[in-house]
C-alpha cells in the first residue's frame, strides 16, 4: 500500500508546540525566512512490513517563467517600508535586520544620517560614507572638515582653512566647530604643526 502526503508550508494547519495555538502569518514567515532544511521522522510498528520513504521533493516557484511572463500563482507581497522580496523576507537597501536575526527579527533603517546608502546587515556599520564624513555611523567629519554630520544634510561637513584648505597650506591636525552668536560657522584649528600657531595656524 502506498500513501502520499502533501505538506503545505502555509500558516493554516500549523500550530505552536508551546501552547498548541495556531501560528500567525507573521510567525510562519519568520520561520520560513531562516528555513535551511526539513527533517522527516517516520515510525512504524515492528509487526508491519518494511516501510520505505521515497520520492521526497520540494516544489519551488519563481515569479517569472522562461519567456519572461509572470506566474499569478506566486505570491508577491506589497512590503512595508524597509522590507523587500516576494514575501517581504529581506531588508531593503539601507536597512538591516535587528533583534533575533536567526529567526527573522525586524528591519531597521541604518543610522548613517543620510551620508551612506547602506550598512553592514549584521553590525549596522555604515558603508562608504559620503559628504566628507567618516565613522561607523558617518557621524564625524573627515580631517580638514568641521561640522555636525548628525544633522543629516549633505553640507554638514565644511572644509576648514588652517590657514588655507589646500594640502600644502593646511597646517593643523584637524579643526572643530566653535559656533558663536555672531558666527554660526566659526571653527578652530586644532594641534597646529610645529612652527605654526593661531586659531587658523596662520602665524
Helix and strand arrangement:
Blueprint: H1 25-33, E1 83-84, E2 90-91, E3 95-98, E4 106-109, E5 118-119, E6 126-127, E7 133-134, E8 140-141, E9 145-146, E10 158-159, E11 172-177, E12 187-192
Main β-sheet description: 2 strands, antiparallel
- Percent helix among the residues? under 10%
Number of helices: 1
Strand order of the largest sheet: 1-2
N-end to C-end Cα span:
98 Å
Strand content: 15-25%
The pLDDT mean sits at 81
- Using only C-alpha atoms, the radius of gyration works out to 29 Å
Instruction: Write the element-wise H/E pattern from the N-terminal end onward.
Output: HEEEEEEEEEEEE
Global structural class: mainly beta
Residue ranges: pLDDT <50 for 5 or more in a row?
none
Structural account:
By secondary structure, the protein is mainly beta. The chain has a domain at 160-203. The chain has one helix at residues 25-33, and strands spanning 83-84, 90-91, 95-98, 106-109, 118-119, 126-127, 133-134, 140-141, 145-146, 158-159, 172-177, 187-192. It has a two-stranded antiparallel sheet. A two-stranded antiparallel sheet has the order 3-4. It has a two-stranded antiparallel sheet with strand order 5-6. A hairpin with a 5-residue loop joins strand 7 (133-134) and strand 8. The model has no long low-confidence stretch (mean pLDDT 81).
